[in-house]
Write a structure and sequence with these properties.
With 446 residues, this protein is of the alpha+beta class. Helices cover 32% and strands 23% of the residues. Helix 10 runs antiparallel to helix 11. The longest helix is centred in the middle third of the chain and has 25 residues, at 253-277.
Length: 446
């Protein structure tokens, strides 16, 4: 990712060079860029931006596909606001600076014999960027990263530093765990952690009909279940992760490399490149791809099971639908692909999450299934995504905040029962819209 200049000062001026996200579909040209090393430096940068009439946005590693972090004002970079600040074994918590990559958090926790309960499958994001946009994995009982937050520190529009938890500024805490950067800039987060455990991963090809026929059973019987459907085929790949007494039996170095690097990244990259150049080849490639991955079972510590490298760049849209609507919505998507002239090289991913109590969480107040569609970067995606979006919204779907969608505040206010609670808090904390940008104006209103 090409980042604009970060000079490290609280008020220094950046080069004005472009900032781009990971997928390369969003570019911004901030007037100023800073990389603060403390909450005090960050607060001073916000006050300086206000004095100069600049809006403020914080960027992580750019793994959102939306323009959530884009700004033409002050861009706050995460490079110096990093590190694990406190591990409290008695309380079962870890406090970490907001710009810390999830990879560093997971590796540090493992070194101390601790782990998050659940996580997504990518470790490149910063902890703040991941929680603020609703990053999640899959889980029957365990929810998103934001739902595992027990405390946070927030710099607000007037340069104040708020400490928030269920007991201190509880209304701000409730919303800011997943706040889209609209309430302020998070400087540190406290997560609930637990003693490290082992997961046994069972990955197995399965037919579309069997997976959808057994979907409720699979979700109920496994702590973490997900599957991928390969468009243009009747084939899926399933993943079931469950806690294990051990012993540890990680994938062999060679077999793990074949599955995770050669097939999932190297060969897949070539297949996607061929498909982009010759779309008519995609259905045939999909049939081969769906048969390439074989069944395997292994046991390892959580982050090595939950996460995997993603080197093939893509664009993505994901919708959260009521869990009971998952199979019907996916079935309509399959019919769409079969009847339309779409050539889809990426598998469709299906995951689940339990209901949570976060106002803007995609799982707020209801048990949820996530259906994610992807296309290789550079492939025209608009028609396919628009058609998929019509299906998902017809099933009361809520779009992932960090992934492509076309919904606006009018639609989202009806989709989220606590939407007004969030926007009222925004009005109180940021009445002048210091933290606004085009994306937030669209999804939250002005």
């Amino acid at each position: 990712m090409a980042a604009s200049n970060a000079d490290g000062g609280s008020g220094g001026r950046g080069s004005g060079g472009p900032w781009r996200n990971w997928a390369g579909n969003v570019t911004a040209r901030p007037a100023r860029t800073v990389a603060p090393a403390s909450a005090e430096e960050l607060a001073a940068a916000v006050r300086g931006a206000a004095a100069d009439g600049l809006t403020v946005k914080a960027a992580g590693t750019g793994h959102s596909f939306t323009a959530a972090a884009a700004t033409d004002g002050l861009l706050i970079r995460p490079e110096r606001l990093t590190g694990v600040r406190k591990i409290d074994r008695e309380a079962g918590t870890v406090t970490v600076a907001a710009g810390t990559p999830l990879k560093v958090l997971n590796e540090t926790l493992a070194a101390h014999g601790l782990s998050l309960t659940n996580m997504g499958d990518i470790m490149e994001q910063t902890v703040s960027g991941a929680t603020s946009t609703g990053t999640h994995g899959t889980g029957r009982d365990s929810a998103s990263l934001a739902a595992q937050v027990t405390g946070l520190e927030l710099v607000t529009a007037d340069g104040s530093v708020l400490t928030c938890s269920a007991k201190e500024n509880p209304d701000v805490f409730a919303a800011a765990r997943l706040g889209l950067g609209a309430l302020g800039v998070i400087t540190e987060l406290t997560f609930a952690v637990e003693p490290e455990f082992l997961l046994t991963a069972r990955e197995e090809p399965m037919s579309y009909d069997e997976v959808t026929g057994r979907f409720d059973e699979m979700v109920t019987e496994n702590e973490h279940f997900e599957f991928y459907w390969f468009p243009h085929t009747g084939s899926c790949n399933t993943k079931r992760n469950n806690r294990s007494q051990g012993p540890s039996a990680p994938p062999g170095r060679v077999s793990g490399w074949i599955e995770d690097e050669l097939l999932s990244n190297g060969v897949f990259q070539i297949a996607c490149s061929v498909g982009r150049a010759v779309p008519a080849a995609i259905p045939g490639i999909a049939k081969i791809s769906s048969r390439a991955l074989s069944a395997r079972t292994y046991t390892d510590i959580p982050y090595r099971v939950f996460t995997s490298p993603r080197r093939v760049r893509f664009v993505e849209m994901e919708y959260a639908v009521p869990r009971e609507a998952a199979v019907a919505a996916l079935g309509e998507l399959r019919t769409l692909v079969e009847r339309a002239d779409f050539k889809v090289s990426f598998p469709v991913e299906v995951r689940t999450a339990p209901a949570d109590d976060i106002p803007l969480s995609t799982a707020s107040g209801r048990d949820t299934a996530y259906i994610a569609v992807h296309l290789y970067r550079g492939t025209p995606h608009e028609a396919y995504f628009a058609a998929a979006e019509r299906i998902m919204t017809a099933h009361d779907g809520r779009p992932h905040w960090g992934k492509l969608h076309t919904r606006d505040a009018g639609h989202l206010a009806a989709a989220y029962p606590r939407f007004g609670e969030f926007t009222a808090l925004r009005d109180r904390l940021d009445p002048d819209r210091r933290f606004a940008n085009g994306y937030l104006r669209r999804v939250l209103g002005d």
